[in-house]
Amino acid sequence: MQNHDRIHVIGGGIIGLLSARELLAAGRSVVLFDRQELGRESSWAGGGILSPLYPWRYPAAVNRLAAVSRALYPELCQRLYHNTGIDPEWVSSGLLVLDDNEREAAKNWAESESICLEPVDALSLRSLEPVLAGRFSQGLWMPQIAQVRNPRLIAALKHDLLRSGGDFRENVAIQGFSGRAGRLQGLVTSAGDVSVKQCLVAAGAWTAGLLQARGVPLPIEPVRGQMLLFRCRPGLVRHILLRDYHYVIPRRDGRLLVGSTLEHVGFDKTTTVEAREALQQAALELVPALADCEIERHWAGLRPGSPAGIPFIGEHPGLKGLVVCAGHYRNGFALGPASARLAVDLVLGREPLLDPGPYRLDRR
Fold this sequence. Notes:
This protein is an alpha/beta fold. The chain has two domains: 3-77 and 151-219 and 308-359, FAD/NAD(P)-binding domain; 95-144 and 221-305, D-Amino Acid Oxidase, Chain A, domain 2 (2-Layer Sandwich).
């Protein structure tokens, strides 16, 4: 490849990896930078539910990306498994929403999005999820909602990119950008300056800090999320359970992922006893049988919070050649394939997959 074909991607989470894959598929060479190992920040901490939680509470701009991504995931995961031998564990496990007072809003949203959503009574709940706590007498069943296993999808993407010729620069921090006459010219990195012509920034919660000096104060901030992992017998819980923004996600091997907190504490990834106890209690209120299961892990990650959860996808208004795709908040996996494709459309000057207007960096 010639140097003018090379595009530099900053950030090795789900958005950066999917964007790099799109660029390679378009015949461009890619150099991907990450400040540590790939996929070890927000992408490692999330649950992998391929839908926003309570999607009817989100604006249309979020749900448009989610709908396109939902359609792309089965083939993406199948192809990655074929190419790498790593199964991302895409599972159409369905989602049970157990909150009260959600039916009307949920029903209106499901009809507009052509999504199957079924109100269920106590008897149906027991049939769907026998170990569910007896206190629940009704819920909403969304059978089309799927999940992936975050670390396995990240590993599959990394291996696929390597076999396709992608170049990774892990443990290299980006410190700034250089430009001339309104055009991007280089990156300032912890390993020295790099001459570039085109760059896609997908640095999650760190994106705002990178762009601040270039005159674009994006409202993206770190939001800590703490998680628990239970070791259980396979099949104990059959479906994703959701109540009061807490979720229980069953993996194929029997492990159950429980999340999550929302904490505005800056770039602090410390875990706390209070969060562990609150998550454990929320899980037990959904599935009392978890009292007999071991908590295997407790960890935290930093999600890139943004107003209304709408990501910023667009070209820097004052530095041509610099495109941003960041601010997905809790929905990096749910919105990832569509966001990456839209961002790459803008990088390459292709007809955009979706109207980019709602995601502009300079939107109100």
